[in-house]
Amino acid sequence: MMNTNKNSYTIIYAAVLVIVVAATLAFISGVLKAPQAKNIEIEKKLNILMSVNKANNQDDAKNKNEYIENEYKKYIDEQFLVNIKGERIEGDAFNTDLKQELEKSENDRRLPVFVCNDNGNKLYVFPVYGPGLWGPIWGYISLKNDFNTIFGAVFDHKGETPGLGAEIVTLKFRERFTNKKLYNNEQFVSVKVIKAGSAPTDVHSVDGVSGGTITSKAVSTLLFNSMENYKAFFTKQKQALSTQN
Amino acid sequence: MNQKESLFSSKNLKLLTAPFNESNPVIVMVLGICSVLAVTVKLQPAIVMGLSVTIVCGFSCLIISLLRNTIPNRIRIIVQLVVVATFVILIDQVLKAFAYQTSKQLSVFVGLIITNCIIMGRIEAFALGNKPLPAFLDGIGSGAGYGAILVTIAFIRELFGSGTLLNVRIVPESWYIQNGGFYANNGLMIYPPMVLILIGLFIWIHRSFNKNLIGK
Question: Which residue in A120, A148, B58, B135 has its CB near the most CB atoms, within 10 A?
Fold first, then answer.
């Protein structure tokens, strides 16, 4: 029987074990990288589509990924970046991470815009991002082409309380944003999430989720902070529209 | 001495079934409570978590048992940790690739399987001193015994806390007060402390049937 208590044996044993384990994990990670990246991409596409009320039959689709890819190709016909002055800039809009952009100084920000074209009826999708109660919250807001009225909203989060703050992902909460307006006359006011159950009648506030007050407030703040960046872009688009008419 | 034991002899079978009753990791040994608090709000993540722990526990015990005569005693805990961590990372990666939504719900708790005392406990107490097959069965049994409690608690919490099971609505929408009904979800079920109350109740019921567990 070998002496398993010798120093040399212990060191060699530890080294071999670690190398074997590292090699195994590196191999597995390499194999699974592609499907993992695909999942993230599909989820992002699905979120964008959901904000314009598309891809509703994903649960019935035989091949969910393929269905989402096709819907995305069909409806999202333009994606580009704008800067804080509302001018188009070069870059890959789909893979631009809003979180990183918001950390930069205002003038360096590259802000993604996705355009949905449903039979000539254009909707504009803007990502939003900000801190929640336990972790980040992000989402997509789609605007009608008056660049004021919200068409749809989608939210997702890292770790809000299940059953309370996490309810922001539900259709029930998301629906409340439809037809709300970002501008009060010429003033950018965004949409506020107020106390649950107040049933607001004005176009600048929506009901929060009950028991999720901090999450609701966080959504309010991140909506304002994210959409504010696009103010110049909205103004430019509105001017372009009015000269057309 | 070298008498061949059949795969499912009564002794081996006992290793598999005992954790469901008189040696349940959660309600008898009171191990792994933290993850029970965290992942039992909804049924589906609880099922996936139970399965993951079962797989990690079973295979870690198997590997450790196979290596048991070669492991240097002084670094034995480190070796155990490395083996368990490997399986945990494997499960985490596989979930991220093939069950993305569930992996998002479980978030850090998959990674935290490694801190689940049940696994290290079974390795130290059993796998290090027993042959691979009994060690494997013991690991699977302990993981499944933990999973059984997890699923039972998640069932109660999701049903009374959200009115759904596996995200399918059980309590009709029209029963709710805001829709003119008489019913409201029990908000306490959503919060972790309720799990402690539920586990307390389980232990009470369990011990009233197993008098030999009382007062040792």
Answer: B135
Provide CB contacts within 8 A for A135, sequence distance 6+: A157, A158, A159, A160
Residue A36 C-alpha, separation from nearest chain B C-alpha, in angstroms: 4
Specify if B93 maps to a domain: yes
Asked if residue B12 is part of any domain, the answer here is no
- In the block, tokens 């299940």 appear at A162
Contacts of A189 (CB under 8 A, 6+ apart): A182, A183, A204
Domain-embedded: residue B119: yes
Is A162 at the interface with chain B, CB within 8 A?
yes
Among A9, A39, A65, A171, the strongest candidate for a mutation testing the B interface, having the largest count of B CBs within 10 A, is: A39
Q: Is there a contact between A162 and B79 if contact means CB atoms under 8 Å apart?
A: no
Among partner residues B107, B161, B187, which is closest to A159 by beta-carbon distance?
Answer: B107
Q: How many domains does chain B have?
A: 1
Candidates A2, A4, A40, A58: best to mutate against B (most CBs of B within 10 A) is A4
- Give the H/E segment covering residue A9: helix A7-51
- Domain range spanning residue B95? 27-213
ipTM associated with this complex: 0.77
- pLDDT, tens digit, 9 for 90 and up, residues B78-133: 999 999 999 999 999 999 998 888 888 787 788 888 888 889 999 999 999 999 99
| pLDDT tens track for A7-57 | 999 999 999 999 999 999 999 999 999 999 999 999 999 999 999 988 777
